[in-house]
Amino acid sequence: MTTKNREPYKQAYYPPVPTRFTRYMRTSLVWQFFRFIIINFKILKLLFKAHKA
Amino acid sequence: MARILILGAGISGHTVARYLNKWLGKAHPITVVSPKPNWNWIPSNIWVGVGEMAEKQVTFPLAPIYNKIGIDFRQASAVSIHPEGGPEHAAPYVTIEYTEPSRAGENDVVEYDYLVNATGPKLNYGATPGLGPEGGYTFSVCTPVHASEANARLQEMIKAMKAGETKTFVIGTGHGMCTCQGAAFEYMYNVDHTLREAGVRDKARLVWISNEYELGDFGMGGVHIHRGGYITNGKVFAESMMVERGMEWITRAHVNKIEPGKIHYELLDGSFNELEFDFSMLIPPFAGVPLKAFDQSGAEITDQIFAPNGFMKVDADYEPKPYEDWGPEDWPKTYQTPKYKNIFAVGIAFAPPHLISKPMKSANGTPINPTPPRTGMPSAAIGKAVAMSIRDMVHGASQPTHTASMANIGAACVASTGSHIFKGTAATMTVFPVVPDYDRYPEYGRDMDLTFGEIGLAGHWMKYILHHVFIYQAKMRPGWAILPD
User: How many domains does chain B have?
Assistant: First the structure.
């Protein structure tokens, strides 16, 4: 059973929950293709900084 | 001619082996000792654990690779280190016991000029009664075989739920001092995804249990990221994902005993609690593998070389000090042992100076805090740095020439949250540095430009591609050395 535990002051009441649009963007092929390039770029930056260090 | 001996052929040890082979060729013989015949791309064991991949997709035999490049591969466990030689050997040596079926139980001696301890963790299921798949009541995804067994049980659960039963799944860490929360987190979301795909998610209660003070700690003291116009702690995002997927969570927990269908745990507030379950995957705590060390006369010097947790002491500051006095300089740089300049420990095998997360004790005095993670990227970076140092020392350098302090390197982790080419997602997270440095980065301890996190299909594509890339690299296929580690 999925916990429908949204009563006040309970655990599930406070954290942010993604909107439908946010969830859609997570699997939008066009947007995720763009994010794929950005994420790879960020990881390469990280590797490059580690190399320099 | 220098003889190089590497104990362990995991992510770190195999990295040392292939780079040293590339740089030194056959002029300096390399021996690799590892108890298992296969290399394992451990991050993908999660997918074996939910039936997305088979064991053979995450492993390959090492012997053919090593034979091809002239590395002497011994399928054996290392038993003892003799860094000063011994009564019958002038040169330093290691004793090994073969695990290869044709020679199982036979002992042997391997002399060395340089030794790399890359033995990784002992999966210390024994630390919690009832933990683990061998004699216990919980499953594991730490090895491909264990992950297969977990999937078999998961499929039984799915079958039962399809017949109308409800089941409780408990996933997390099986002791108050575990690390590897990320792997458990990843497995939990893949189980959720699998249950949804099977149409039975509404029949399942999913509960996370871990020793983190708050969700999102992952053994690194948590992380802050830029998101939506704010700098937010990862706890918020981790909890968000839990609520989004309808999961419950218990943190600050030390699992102290497991009985069939029941987990006993202590919380930081000192209370003792129980949680019933039908399926549970709990990561075990890690210890060093049980290696002993002896000096030239045969006297045992194990406690000089190894920390009490069994990990090998290297160039870290092991002086006990309060959390407030911890700093990036405490962490090792060259991974060379202080007394024996020709011995190094890499990957999980080196002894961290202390935790990264703040140490916490329950009201009863029980330590309940994550221990430091050594994930794939830092493990490979450490292995490569040590390989470069040994190469240079073989060629005449008097000391290590390369460093890879965890306070000066980053890590990228891609945690799958469900596998599917168009509907899958993963949480991609980078941190720089792994160990927070509040001298350089006063506000959050980390470079906020290089520390980020996001969830999406792109992450899943990355994880899937990296699975193939890293196995290609580990098999030393053409061009492997230009691929990033």
Answer: 1
Residue B385 lies in a domain: yes
Q: Is B214 on the interface with A (CB under 8 A)?
A: no
- What is the pLDDT averaged over residues B188-205? 97
Q: Which residue in A5, A32, A47 is closest to B457 by CB distance?
A: A32
Domain containing residue B9: 4-123+286-394
Q: Are A39 and B459 in contact (CB under 8 A)?
A: yes
| B299 assigned to some structural domain | yes
Considering the entire predicted model, what is its pTM?
A: 0.95
Question: What's the pLDDT tens digit per position in B7-53?
Answer: 999 999 999 999 999 999 989 999 999 999 999 999 999 999 999 99
Asked whether the beta carbons of residue A5 and residue B247 sit closer than 8 angstroms, the reply is no
Closest to B356 measured CA to CA, from B181, B218, B220, B175? B220
ipTM computed for the complex = 0.89
How far is the alpha carbon of A40 from chain B, nearest alpha carbon, in Å? 8
Q: Over chain B, what is the mean pLDDT?
A: 96
Instruction: Record the tokens describing residue B485, joined without a space.
Output: 């580690």
CATH number at residue B38: 3.50.50.100
- For residue A1, the distance in angstroms to the closest alpha carbon of chain B comes to 4
Within-domain flag for B235 = no
Residue A12's identity, in one-letter code, is A
Contacts of B68 (CB under 8 A, 6+ apart): B476
